[in-house]
Amino acid sequence: MKKFWIKTLAMMTLAVTAYGQTELVEQVDHPVDYAKPLMGTDSDYSLSNGNVYPAIAMPWGMNFWTPQTGKMGDGWAYMYDATKIKGFKQTHQPSPWMNDYGQFSIMPITGKPVFKEEERQSWFSHKAETVTPYYYSVYLADHDVTTEITPTERAARFRFTFPDTDSAFVVLDAFDRGSYVKVLPEERKIIGYTTRNSGGVPDNFRNYFVVEFDKAFTFTKTFKDDALQDALEAEANHAGAVIGFKTTKGEIVNAKVASSFISYEQAALNLQEIGGHDFDALKELGRKTWDEQLGRIKVSGGTQDQMETFYSCLYRSLLFPRKFFEYDADGNVVHYSPYNGEVLPGYMFTDTGFWDTFRSLFPFLNLMYPELNAQMQEGLANAYKESGWLPEWASPGLRNVMVGNNSASVVADAFLKYEGDYDYDIETLYEAVIHGANNAGPLTAVGRAGAEYYKELGYVPYDVGINENAARTLEYAYDDFTIYQLAKALDKPKEEVELYKQRSLNYKKLFDPETKLMRGKNQDGEFMAPFNPFKWGDAFTEGNSWHYTWSVFHDVQGLIDLMGGREDFVAQLDKVFSLPPVFDDSYYGGVIHEIREMQIANMGQYAHGNQPIQHMIYLYNYAGEPWKAQHWVRETMNRMYMPTPDGYCGDEDNGQTSAWYVFSAMGFYPVCPGTDQYVIGAPLFKQVTLSLQNGEEVVINAPENSAQNRYIDALKVNGKSYSKNWLSHKELMKGAQLDFDMSAKPNKKRGTSKNDVPFSLSNE
Question: Which residue positions does the secretion signal occupy (predicted)?
């Protein structure tokens, strides 16, 4: 009898577990509850599962906050497997590779008034940690203090719950490389500035901060480098302050903090964002803000994991580029220029790399947040006026990272999607993209490195000392296509329009018919040799030829023709998944994390953890086998994304990898920004509703969707049968209903006609 009950109990447990895995969430009232800021935080230098930190912030906020487990200056500010917290940092870091700027930290302690990181740090546990986009709480075991944070865009509230002690302290660490603090006991306030940065700033760069407490100080000291002192003021390489109180058990001390890149006075103005809200009211306001923004896309009919993954990715898609502007005393938009150091009127955004984010993050903003993206375009015009160049990687000013001239795509796509709907200086931006397309910049990642070679030969040669030359050539050709599209829309002279159309065909110059792959080419017109298509770097950027060959976003038909037709093209696509994950890392002298992430994913040469190949799955739609795109899109979503600390398969990269998931889960993807089209994949949920900014709705129904039913059997758009493998942006903007019939078996007839393929320049 005993064995019977044990066996029955085991079967019941299995049934509940299985049911729990497949039980679907039919309604989401508070999408923010599904967003997991810890997704992707279990990363390190050698292997990225996201390489993100929990950003406690408002959407696109100027300042983020994060618990700091890493040492001062370490780009890996928060690592999930860490056991100690050193402080709570105001951060502007877009990625560990770019590192931070304008950072400082706050840390409550008890016992001795210590201030060094290794002395003040405390053990903590994720079991006593609450992490949401708008609220963070953790118990600091060594100090018996609970710390809570809730932010606004430029300010935040802290709430410290102390034990019964006469030795309760708060350390304000302004970090090294030049900082200043001043304690104002009569005002229960600390002011100061930090200059710490990682480049891309003018000489006068400072982040000014103000911290106000609601309890009088019984202890006041400052520190200079390694020494604590009685003076209320400190200016040094590394300055900070320690203030203290006597507290009773469970006593709460509140602090309000804000900062500004402009001045102390502006920091005080920014503090007014908190208004009269106490901690709980501000927390609730933050929750409501995130619910409103995340709720613009409502999904239902997915598993708990799928819902959490979707809203976690959507949360990451709403953080960058950050607002780098402030409001003056008269309510005017002003910004400190990270390009020339002046305080100027108008918008400014930063902390994004266009090599990553032109692909899906900016198209996502164009789809769902066009008003905000119009402000971003104003900010880009200001960046050009203030620096003479459009940024390709801004953090906060020009940084010398990555390749390409993809600002052209970002500018063109925004204008082409909403031609004339938003009033910003498109003529200045057109001037900027033409300037960038024809000149090498002050940094190799600004303008176009090798511009003269490219204009003369149609490619950047392999043997002239310009690294990653084939990648540059392919991206320049695509960027020229977006300029061609923009020039047409702005009615520029015909010869100018035609010039960029012809330059957009330069990708053909690197196609090697022998291997049917892209290959670096020497100045004399001969292909570089020996050629190893598995060699990472060298002629390519963070990838190999199998990854970059598909970077012909604007003319997939042209690439199909070069490869010998549809069958040969599909065969090459298939090889990406069937080849073993072999690699040649000799260019780097070791295995970089992107290589390792491809190797361990068990998807052959498909390296979803990095950007160059992320669109490749959708290219089956151009060659008459859309069901393969449907298969691999679902496979990638299922295997490469989870709502867990190791939930990404590479660097998240400022919303790009997240926006890929958001688009793909909705059932379509912007393969070629600069066109009106989204290429169809396969929706993940039973229903998705997009609330567009113009008041219209797009409803995506797939009632038969399931783990098995990943293939599109039929599609109706606004009630009419629809066989094409793409959707029109302009048509979606009018409001639309998409009804997908999903099946466990691929429909090998739907979407196979040449009339069904998405846009290619060769078919224009």
Answer: 1-20
Runs of H (alpha helix) within 388-421:
407-417
The answer, yes or no, to whether residue 36 has pLDDT greater than 70, is yes
Report whether 101 contacts 90 (CB < 8 A): no
Q: How far apart are CA 523 and CA 520, in angstroms?
A: 10
Contacts of 186 (CB under 8 A, 6+ apart): none
Task: Give residue 22's pLDDT.
Answer: 74
List b or e across 14-26, with b for residues whose CB sees 16 or more CB atoms inside 10 angstroms: eeeeeeeeeeebe
C-alpha–C-alpha distance, residues 257 and 270, integer Å: 9
Backbone angles phi, psi at 9, to 5 degrees: -60, -40
**What pLDDT shows up at residue 7?**
42
Cα 739 to Cα 306, 547, 746, distances in angstroms: 21, 33, 17
DSSP at 749: S
What 729-734 contacts at long range (C-beta under 8 Å, 24+ apart), as own/partner pairs, is 729/366, 729/367, 729/417, 729/676, 729/677, 729/678, 730/676, 732/367, 732/678, 732/692, 732/698, 733/692, 733/694, 733/696, 734/696
Q: Do 159 and 141 contact (CB within 8 A), yes or no?
A: no
Residues in a beta bridge with 257: 156, 211
Q: How many other C-beta atoms are found inside a 10 Å radius of the C-beta of residue 99? A: 20
Quote the DSSP letter at residue 613. Answer: G
Cα–Cα distance for residue pair 665/658, rounded to 1 Å: 11
Q: Which two tokens stand for residue 624?
A: 């008459």
The one-character DSSP state at 398 is: B
Closest CA to 264 of 194, 201, 191: 191
DSSP 39: T
Separation in Å, CA 404 to CA 148, 381, 382, 522: 42, 19, 21, 19
Mean pLDDT of all residues in the chain? 96
What whole-number distance in Å separates Cα of residue 760 and Cα of residue 764? 7
CB 129 within 8 A of CB 258: no
| Of the candidates 621, 682, 608, the residue with the CA atom closest to the CA atom of residue 649 | 608
**DSSP class per residue in 625-655:** -HHHHHHHHHHHHHHH--SSTT-SSS--TTT
153 with 61: CB under 8 angstroms?
Answer: yes
**Category of 425 on φ-ψ map: left (φ > 0), alpha (ψ -120 to 50) or beta:** beta
- Find where tokens 């997240």 sit: 658
Q: Which domains does the chain have, with CATH numbers?
A: 36-295 (2.70.98.10)
Is residue 574 a contact partner of residue 643, using CB atoms and an 8 Å limit? no
Predicted confidence (pLDDT) per residue in 538-565, tens digit? 999 999 999 999 999 999 999 999 999 9
Question: Per the omega criterion (within 30 degrees of 0), is the bond before 321 cis?
Answer: yes
pLDDT of res. 419: 87
Which amino acid would we find at residue 690?
Answer: L
Residue with tokens 């993954």: 309
Neighbouring CB atoms inside 10 A of 735's CB total: 15
State the Cα–Cα distance between residues 43 and 74, nearest whole angstrom: 13
| Separation of alpha carbons 144 and 119, rounded Å | 15
Give me the amino acid identity at 497: V
Stated pTM of the model: 0.96
